[in-house]
Amino acid sequence: MKRIHLSLVTFLLLVVPTVGQVDATFATFGSGCPGSGTGLDANITVLPASMSSRFGSGNAIPFGWMPHRYQQVLSGTDMPSAFTMAGLSLRQPNRGPLSNRFTIDMEIQVGYTSRTPATMSTVYAQNYDSGTPVVVLPRTQIVIPDMVPTGPSSPADFFFTIRWPTTFDWVPAPGRHLLVQVTVFGHSYGSGTSGYAFDMGSDPTMARLYSTSLSATSGTLERNFGIVMGIRALSHTVTPELFSTNTPMVNDQFRVRVRQARASASAYMVLGISASRWNGSPLPQNLGWLGAPACSLLTSLDDVQGLTIDASGNGSHEYDIPNSIYLLGARIYSQAIIVDPVANSLGLALTNGGIGVIGNQ
Predict the structure, then answer these.
(1) How many CA atoms lie within 13 A of 2 on its CB side?
(2) Pick the CATH number of 2-35+239-357 from 2.60.120.10, 2.60.120.260, 1.10.3720.10, 2.20.130.20
(3) Would you tell me which of 76, 209, 248, 300 could form a disulfide with 356, CB atoms 3.0–4.6 Å apart?
(4) Average pLDDT over residues 258-282
């Protein structure tokens, strides 16, 4: 744990005379640069392929219904060559009602099937006919980001990704297709048939089967319709990511996290008070002149602390924020620097940036 330095607090006291109730927020900004960690590739394989350049329509099945058992078959001809799947990305519809503050209690499993969208069975057990499926996401609570009020501007905008703790190896073969099963045990809206709608596509390369009973052996079959899925591949040259699962509050601890960094690497967490200038130079500052042309410094270096990265490429740093009303509304910026000798000539990989607004609620 590390307290915000007195010099930073003093600065904030001088420039942030805010009182009253202030919402604490945290968001990411900017881009990091690739390292040699393991994680999700930035590229998305969109299924079905025909939906990669167009939107479909919003539909609450399966995520908005509870309880719910859902299967979707996707044509193997849409899949690329052999690769390791590590996550599923979803897309907001470009029109329709907005949904926010949504959490799902769910499980995902994937596997091979010889069933095509045209031959998918109404009996769940008959569809996984090419080996035992893999539970890539054991039952867990998944928090869905709030929808963007203006809607997505591009079909390439998959705003939400579900990371899989267990990967799945796709190996193409004649007559082999992909079957995805989503089981929804409950969600935070507390209603059986209302919830978060994601973008759905109409295409002959997919079909879906669903039921509102978890014990059902069969369900309703719809061909030529299903969720538009972005399948994320596992990569060993990913960009480390900075994020946080909480917000900076006065008289509380604020934890900034890092994932997808080089395993067991040395690293540093930077805390700054500006994302526009540092040391007389404008930000962001490209580090190409130092040997890292894809990397940019995004925040001023007002406080730099050592950061421990574990064998899985994860790390975190905690800040103890003082109990002072004068900190309310103050903006603090963060970025992590990872020592990664193979990343570039400089030997560093940088994360994206984080911006937090200190609040009291």
Answers:
(1) 17
(2) 2.20.130.20
(3) 248
(4) 95
